[in-house]
Specification:
Layout (H helix, E strand, L loop, with lengths): L13 H4 L3 H6 L11 H16 L5 H26 L9 H13 L4 H17 L4 H7 L2 H27 L1
Helix pairs in contact: 3-5, 4-5, 4-8, 5-6, 5-8, 6-8, 7-8
């Protein structure tokens, strides 16, 4: 049983990170341990992962990897949240990595589009407009952690499509 959705029973550190493979993944290989902006750091981790995987996989394979990473993320984020006593602790960033990987997959070519995608995703992930806030507040456990970021990815992709249609 968790005591809070966001506040852990203890401050996670490198020892905690390496105490279980789920913690290492859910903390984004350590990026979630940053004291300021762990979600932003986790989102940044998606860039090299995308740049490495995308040219090596077909589109269908990449989407299957994302689906697997989402499902696996539900499990690892749940394990880590339970261990911390805070199911949606800010240092759990696997959700940002997976969701932003999805965004990058659909983002138009070019660094400027990727930068805009990053800014928009962070905006929607932080502000949590409805219905993102509803799901963030009402869905719990690993699925709740992962799902609100997928919605933020959807808002990001809709915004990018709108901006692209306006710019031509």
């Amino acid at each position: 049983m968790t005591t809070s959705r966001k506040q852990p029973l203890f401050k996670p550190d490198w020892r905690f990170l390496f105490s279980h493979p789920a913690h290492f993944l859910s903390f984004g290989f350590g990026s979630g341990l940053l004291p300021k902006g762990p979600g932003t750091a986790g989102t940044l981790v998606a860039f090299p992962m995308y740049w490495f995987l995308a040219p090596r996989l077909t589109d269908a394979m990449f989407l299957l990897v994302l689906i697997w990473a989402f499902a696996f993320g539900v499990w690892v984020c749940d394990i880590t949240g339970r261990a911390l006593g805070a199911e949606d602790y800010g240092g759990i960033v696997w959700d940002e990595i997976v969701a932003f990987g999805l965004v990058l997959f659909f983002t138009p070519e070019g660094w400027h589009w990727q930068l805009l995608a990053f800014v928009l995703f962070r905006f929607f992930d932080i502000v949590k407009p409805q219905p993102i806030r509803h799901f963030d507040d009402s869905w719990h456990g690993g699925l709740g952690v992962m799902f609100d970021d997928i919605l933020a990815a959807g808002y990001t992709l809709l915004s990018l499509a709108f901006i692209k249609s306006v710019l031509g």
